[in-house]
From TrEMBL:
Belongs to the cation diffusion facilitator (CDF) transporter (TC 2.A.4) family. GO terms for molecular function: cadmium ion transmembrane transporter activity; ferrous iron transmembrane transporter activity; zinc efflux antiporter activity. The keyword Cell membrane applies. Keywords: Cell membrane, Membrane, Transmembrane, Transmembrane helix, Transport. The chain crosses the membrane at residues 7-31, 43-61, 77-98, 110-131, 151-173. This is Protein p34.
C-alpha cells in the first residue's frame, strides 16, 4: 500500500509540474520578461525530476534478487543525481536567456494577468513542495524529498523574480529583468550542487546521523541482557533501508540458542526504533572483547 501511495504522489507531481509550466509560460508570453522565461525553464526540470522520481521509486521497490541481494533501494539516489544534472542543464539555458536579455532583449511589458499567473504557479508549487518534503521524509524516500526541496527552491526564486519584474516595470530599470534571470540561474545551479552532494553521500554508504546512531547504541545496551559488550558497530544508509552490523560478545560457555535469543531481542528493538533497519550480528566469545565498545546493561 505504501508503494502505491508513493507512486501516486510521484504521478501527481508530474501533472502539477505540467500545470505550473503552463502558467509560467503564459506569464512569459504576456510580459515578454526574460526573468519569467528563466522561471519557466526551471519548471521543465521539475517535471523531469518528478518523472525520474517515479521511475526510481518503482525500481527501488523491487525485492532483492540473486544479482542484488541487498535490494534496489539505491536506485532513488541515482534518480536524485540525474535530477541534479538536469538542474545544471537548466541553469545553462537560463544563463543563455539572461545573456540574450542583456545584449538584445526587449523591455518587459506590464500584465496583471501574467503576474497573477506566475504568482498562482508559485503558490501551487509551494504547497506541493511542503507536502512532498513531509511525506518523503516519513516514507523514507530520498527521491521525493529531493523533488520537494527542488520545488521549494523554485518557489523562492519565483517570488524573487516576481518582485524584481514588478520593480523593473515600476522604476523603468529594465536591466533588472536579465539580471534577475542570471540570479535565478545561479540559484538553480547551487540547488543542483546541493542535491548531487547529498545523493553522492547515499551512494557512498554514508552512516546514519549521530542521533540515530545513539539510539541504536542504547537499544543494544538495554536489550542485550546476557551479553557482555558490543563493538565494531557500523551503519550505512541505502534509500529506505538502514543496514546495521556489529560484534556481540557473550560468555564462552553460553549456548548457541541463548546467544540467538539475545540477538533476536536486540534486532527487534533496533528495527522497531529505526524503520527499515536490517541488522546483522556477529557473536563472539568473551576473550574477543575489546573493552571499548557498548557495555550491555
Amino acid at each position: 500500500m505504501d508503494l502505491k501511495i508513493r507512486i501516486r504522489v510521484a504521478v501527481i507531481s508530474i501533472f502539477i509540474g505540467i500545470l505550473v509550466l503552463g502558467l509560467k509560460t503564459g506569464a512569459y508570453v504576456l510580459t515578454d520578461s526574460v526573468a519569467l522565461l528563466s522561471d519557466a525553464l526551471e519548471t521543465t526540470v521539475n517535471i523531469a525530476s518528478s518523472i525520474a522520481a517515479l521511475v526510481a521509486i518503482w525500481f527501488a521497490s523491487k525485492p532483492a534478487d540473486s544479482n542484488h541481494p541487498y535490494g534496489h533501494d539505491k536506485a532513488e539516489y541515482f534518480a536524485a543525481v540525474l535530477v541534479g544534472v538536469m538542474i545544471v542543464l537548466a541553469a545553462i539555458s537560463i544563463f543563455r536567456a539572461a545573456w540574450i536579455g542583456f545584449t538584445q532583449g526587449d523591455n518587459p511589458e506590464f500584465s496583471s494577468v501574467g503576474i497573477g499567473m506566475n504568482l498562482l504557479a508559485a503558490v501551487i508549487n509551494g504547497a506541493w513542495a511542503r507536502y512532498l518534503m513531509h511525506y518523503g521524509k516519513n516514507a523514507r524516500s530520498p527521491a521525493l524529498v529531493a523533488d520537494g526541496k527542488h520545488l521549494m527552491t523554485d518557489v523562492l526564486s519565483s517570488i524573487g523574480v516576481l518582485v524584481g519584474v514588478v520593480l523593473a516595470l515600476l522604476t523603468g530599470w529594465h536591466i533588472l529583468d536579465p539580471a534577475l534571470a542570471l540570479l535565478v540561474g545561479l540559484t538553480v545551479l547551487w540547488s543542483g550542487w546541493e542535491l548531487v552532494k547529498e545523493s553522492v553521500g547515499g551512494l557512498m554508504d554514508e552512516a546514519v546521523s549521530a542521533d540515530v546512531l545513539e539510539k541504536i547504541r542504547i537499544q543494544i545496551s538495554e536489550h542485550g541482557e546476557g551479553a557482555l559488550e558490543a563493538h565494531d558497530l557500523r551503519t550505512r544508509i541505502a534509500g529506505r533501508s538502514t543496514f546495521v552490523d556489529f560484534h556481540l560478545v557473550v560468555p564462552g560457555t553460553m549456548s548457541v540458542e541463548s546467544a540467538h535469543e539475545i540477538c533476536d531481542r536486540i534486532e527487534e528493538a533496533i528495527t522497531e526504533g529505526v524503520p527499515g533497519a536490517h541488522v546483522t550480528i556477529h557473536v563472539e566469545p568473551e576473550y574477543k572483547a575489546k573493552h571499548s565498545g557498548i557495555v550491555v546493561v
